[in-house]
Amino acid sequence: MTNARLRPAVLISILVAVLGVCALLLTPAKAETFDYWSLWEVENGEWVPTDVGASDLEVQNESVIAAKYVRTEATPTASDAPSQSTSYADLCSDSTSDSSGLDVAVVLDYGDPDLNPSEEATPKAVVECVTVPSPGTGAAALSAAATVTADQAGFISAINSYPASVPTESASVPAANEPVNEDIETSAPGLSLIWLLLIIGFVVLVIAVAVALYRRNRQSSSDWDDTPSA
């Protein structure tokens, strides 16, 4: 009787433990997010986040670049892209070309008003048509289009004093397109290796105990069956 009752209990314990581990392992880890000025360029008529800093971003005549304030992961996605046109002709149709340098369209998008840390109104997105010396860089174009503020590490922290909460340490050349203001709603990166090992160890222990109990009860049942009857 004891053996018959034990088998379902053992199987249920093992199943619960295994399902618990699987549920934890399959739970997706939430990505860490930041508030920062992202940098964009145009490739094949589409906005794409740059993989280099503004100082290393090369621009040609009638290039289009953008800086947008976003809350996203360290690498922006397509949903973070500016909504403005990617065509220089559309953005700067009324501008006069200057043959002495490179004509560049610079989009300044201050992002979602909900990201504004101050009580001041969020500026509207603007397009600045500027001319920079050749060879030109994104840093030169941004500096010609706006007042750029950088932190001590050289990352863009504010454009035209936005966001206003950022210290006004002026910098003539903005640096890499990297997150500089960590979002306060940072989420955990997921299960650590230590927790994973503990959970696996727990499952192994449960299985080992279940097997030991099963064998002991089976042996007890066998001994009982071997006992000569009176």
Question: Briefly, what is this?
Answer:
This protein is of the alpha+beta class and 230 residues long. Strands 1, 2, 4, 5, 6 and 10 form a six-stranded mixed sheet that branches. Strands 3-7 form a two-stranded antiparallel sheet. A two-stranded antiparallel ribbon has the order 8-9. It has helices at residues 2-26, 88-91, 138-145, 193-226, and strands spanning 34-43, 46-49, 58-59, 63-72, 102-109, 126-132, 136-137, 148-150, 156-159, 181-182.
What does it look like?
With 230 residues, the protein is of the alpha+beta class. The protein has helices at residues 2-26, 88-91, 138-145, 193-226, and strands at 34-43, 46-49, 58-59, 63-72, 102-109, 126-132, 136-137, 148-150, 156-159, 181-182. The strands form three sheets. Strands 1, 2, 4, 5, 6 and 10 form a six-stranded mixed beta sheet that branches. Strands 3-7 form a two-stranded antiparallel ribbon. A two-stranded antiparallel ribbon has the order 8-9. Helix 1 (2-26) runs antiparallel to helix 4 (193-226). The longest helix has 34 residues, at 193-226. Mean pLDDT is 77; it is low at 167-190.
